[in-house]
Amino acid sequence: MENFTVFIKRNKLFIFLCMLAIVLILISLSANYIAPHDPFKTNMTNALQGRSSKFPLGTDNLGRCLLSRLLYGASTSLKMTFCLVIIIFIVGTALGTIAAYFGGIVDTIIMRFSDIFLAFPGIIFAIAIAGVLGPSSMNVVIALVVVNWVKYARVSRSLVMSVRKKEYIKGAKMGGAKEYQIILKYILPNIIPSLIVIAAMDIGTMMLEISSLSFLGLGAQPPTPEWGYMLNEGRNYMQTSPGLMIYPGAAIFITVMIFNLLGDSIRDILDPNQ
Question: What angle do CA 91, 99, 132 make, to 5 degrees?
Answer without folding.
Answer: 40
